[in-house]
Design a protein that fits this description.
11 helices, about 80% helix
């Protein structure tokens, strides 16, 4: 009877967590992304906040990392638009590192149940091979570095592997640099009305991301079959 009660309580808590996350995503994350999709308004808002504008932006990106249902690219692009390519990149790296650290610690504490709040079982299972491979650090860096890969899923899954927190912080921060730079450079080009450069950057990024996404799918499917 106790086991059944615990199971009901756990199920109820999971359902409640999903409802809360869905509400947060809809009422907080959605307006946040829509705001970020208006770069001019966002830059005016940042300027009106003074130094606190940077702090608030970092908080927005951390929130986006924690709530994996919210896309991160609009925030990276608007960072380049509002802060410039260099400062935008640094702010995004800081925020994603802090958010990724929180995610890692949450998963280490609560396990796969945290992932199940955001990702379907088949996507989680596609990375199970990383829990047993001695090359987890090399594979993790490669998949995070490769454009077009599901970096939110990877960030959450790393807490289930044997990789240490310090290793993950360094590895993921360095691996994220190329994808963040392309977004902030494109955003900065939009801010400077250099639309030709913006189109080139985004077009190249899209092409490389499609290629990277395809390679990721092939790689994970192959390893899933092996295991």
């Amino acid at each position: 009877m106790e086991k059944q009660q615990k199971k009901r309580i756990t199920t109820g808590l999971v359902i409640l967590a999903v409802v809360i996350l869905g509400a947060v995503t809809w009422f907080v994350g959605r307006p946040m992304v829509q705001f970020a999709e208006n770069p001019e308004a966002f830059r005016a808002w940042v300027d009106s906040k003074g130094p606190w504008g940077r702090v608030l932006f970092v908080g927005m990106v951390i929130f986006q990392v924690l709530v994996a249902l919210i896309p991160g690219e609009p925030l990276e692009i608007v960072a380049g638009y509002a802060f410039g390519a260099v400062e935008g990149t640094l702010l995004c790296l800081l925020a994603t590192t802090l958010g990724g650290t929180m995610v890692f610690l949450l998963v280490r504490k609560w396990g796969v149940r945290v992932l199940e709040l955001y990702f379907p079982p088949e996507r989680i299972e596609s990375l199970r091979f990383m829990q047993n491979t001695p090359k987890v650090r090399v594979i993790a860096f490669f998949l995070m570095f490769l454009p077009g890969t599901p970096k939110d899923l990877l960030s959450y899954f790393m807490g289930l592997t044997k990789i240490r927190l310090g290793e993950w912080i360094v590895l993921s921060t360095v691996a994220r640099i190329p994808s963040i730079i392309t977004s902030t450079v494109g955003g900065n080009a939009l801010g400077g009305q250099d639309y030709r450069l913006a189109v080139i950057v985004f077009a190249v990024t899209l092409g490389v991301s499609l290629l990277g996404g395809g390679l990721y799918t092939l790689y994970t499917r192959r390893n899933k079959k092996k295991n």
